[in-house]
Design brief:
This protein has helices at residues 49-56, 78-83, 100-110, 118-128, 144-155, 174-189, 201-207, 225-232, 237-245; strands at residues 6-17, 21-33, 37-42, 64-69, 72-73, 85-89, 162-166, 193-198, 210-215, 218-223. The chain is of the alpha/beta class. The strands form two sheets. A six-stranded mixed β-sheet has the order 6-7-8-3-9-10, sandwiched between helices. The structure holds adenosine-5'-diphosphate (ADP) and magnesium ion.
Length: 263
């Protein structure tokens, strides 16, 4: 089989916190991702999702283990690795005083998109994400939905093969959350490798081609939803999740949703 676009082996990150001492935020995880696939990291708050994704994005240095993006090691070749991915999170801010167009130009250039193609790329993004009407407006003046579109366009500005979405729907209303899911599927169908994190069962169920259940920095299971169903004998992802994680009371961030109640 071809080399996966994302390959993670024994990846770990330990923080030293004054109050808590040693915190094993990510505790030796393995996974692979491939083009045309949405790989989901499903876990409660504090499970280690963001720490994992920040290591992939070369924002945090791993304590141990290896991660390769398009064959580039995130520690050995951080600049080359960084260029292969776009990182989206609900908390990633835009520069308020730049216009939407300036934002896209800036992110294309900073990620070394070929200079002679930047204008054409920005035009394409403006058309594709429907931001022509306000492309000249400062980002600070835009609505949440408009900012979201600029943020997504910004993430893909340099046309990277790998896209990371860290809890991208946090704080979005239903319409904007659905729009986010639609765009992620579309990018998947174009052959991008997508890593998507969430603590919401229904989101993982609907969007992910494979789901990794992460808890206390460890991946407890990783497979298609159907395979997880067969392995546990349970139908709802919520029940599958609880089976692996071992009890709702341990999980302060656990979200129990109506419509998929346990027996
Ligand atoms: N900079 C840090 N210093 C100390 N502990 C941290 C730091 N960042 C994250 N943690 C801890 O690491 C664990 C995993 O956090 P995080 O990766 O943010 O989880 P998630 O994104 O799944 O909610 C949590 O216990 C969190 O408190
Ligand atoms: Mg997080």
């Amino acid at each position: 089989m071809t080399e996966p676009t994302v390959a993670v082996r024994g990846l770990a990150k330990t923080f030293y916190d004054e109050a808590r001492g040693e915190v094993r935020a990510v505790d030796g995880i393995d996974f692979d991702c491939r083009p045309g696939e949405i790989f989901g990291l499903l876990g409660a708050n504090g499970a280690g999702k963001t720490t994992t994704l920040r290591m992939l994005a070369t924002i945090l240095r791993p304590t141990a283990g290896v991660a390769r993006l398009m064959g580039r090691d995130v520690v050995e070749e951080p600049v080359a690795a960084r260029r292969t991915l776009g990182f989206y999170s609900a908390t990633t801010a835009l520069y308020p005083r730049l216009t939407a167009r300036e934002t896209l130009e800036f992110f294309a250039r900073v990620n070394l998109y070929p200079e002679e193609k930047v204008d054409a790329r920005v035009d394409y993004l403006v058309g594709r994400f429907g931001i022509a009407e306000y492309v000249g407006a400062r980002v600070e003046k835009l609505s949440t939905g408009m900012k979201q579109k600029v943020s997504i366009a910004r993430t893909v500005a340099h046309d990277p093969p790998i896209l990371i979405f860290d809890e991208p729907t946090v704080g979005l209303d239903v319409i904007n959350a659905l729009e986010m899911a639609r765009v992620i599927r579309e990018l998947r169908d174009e052959g991008k490798t997508i890593i998507f994190s969430t603590h919401i069962m229904s989101e993982a169920e609907k969007l992910c081609d494979r789901i990794a259940i992460i808890h206390n920095g460890k991946i407890l299971a990783s497979d298609t939803l159907d395979a997880l169903r067969v392995a546990t004998g349970r139908h709802y992802l919520e029940d599958i999740f609880v089976d692996y994680v071992g009890g709702v009371e341990e999980m302060p961030g656990f979200i129990r949703e109506s419509g998929s109640a346990a027996e």
